[in-house]
What does this fold into?
Amino acid sequence: MTVNTDTVLSADSLGKEYPGPPPRHALDGVSLDVPRGNFVALMGPSGSGKSTLLHLLGALDTPSEGAVHFEGKRIGDLSDDDRTRLRRDRIGFVFQAFHLVDMLTVAENVSLGAAIRGETKARETAEDVRVRTEELLTEIGLEARGREYPDRLSGGEQQRVAIARALFTEPSVLIADEPTGNLDRSNGDAVLGMLRQAADTRGCAVVMATHDPRTAAEADRVYLLRDGQICDQLDLEDEGGPRVDRIQAWLAAAAS
It folds into this structure.
C-alpha cells in the first residue's frame, strides 16, 4: 500500500476477529485515510465496529488482518516499546467516561503525560510543564480550578480537562469515543468546539465515534459502519445545505 504523505493515519483492509465459540467478526475489510487537520466521524448502530476501529487506529489493539499506518509507518512492524511510545507521545485519547485520576488535582491530570514519559528528566523542565499546563487550563476556561480535584467539577468540565490532558503531549492524532455521550447539549457543544479547534489550529487528525447526527455534523467526513464494514461515507466539506439535515437524510437513505 502507498501511503499519502499528507495522511497521518490510515487503515488498509482491516479485519478483527475475536475468538469464540463462536468467533465474532468485529471488522471486515475496513479502509480509510485521515489527513492532517481532518476531523472524521464514525457512525453506526451499537456493535457495528466503531469502538473496535478506534482501538485499532489508536494502537490499543492489533488487527487480525490488514494494517494501520501512522505517518507512513506500519504500526504492526513496531516493537512493543515503540507502540507504547507512540500511544504515549503521538496519540491523544478522549473517552465518554472521562477517566480522570481522582487522587490527582486538575492541573496534575492535565500534565499527566509529562509525568508518565518523564519529561522533567528529558527536554522539558518542571517550569516548562507548569507553563504548558497553565496555558491549557486557560484555553479550556479552568485556569482558576487547577488545584481542585475532579470530583469538584461538572461532567462538562471533567471532559474539558480530559481533552487538555490529551493535548498536553501535542499529539498528531486524537481518538475520541463518544466524547459527548455523558454531556448536556451546552457542554457537548463546548467539547466539540475543542475537538474542531484541535484539527483546525493544531493540525491534529481527529477520529470520533458517535451515534448523534448533531455531533457528527462537526466533522469533515462521516463514515457509516454496519456489521463491521464501511457501507457509506459522506463528505461534509462539500456545500449542500445544513449539515445535520444532510446527515439525517443520508442515514435514512442508507437504512432504506
About this structure: The CA atoms of residues 16 and 64 lie 5 Å apart. The first helix runs from residue 50 to 57. The beta strands are 7-18, 24-35, 39-43, 65-70, 73-74, 91-95, 173-177, 205-209, 221-226, 229-235. Confidence is low (pLDDT under 50) at residues 1-5.
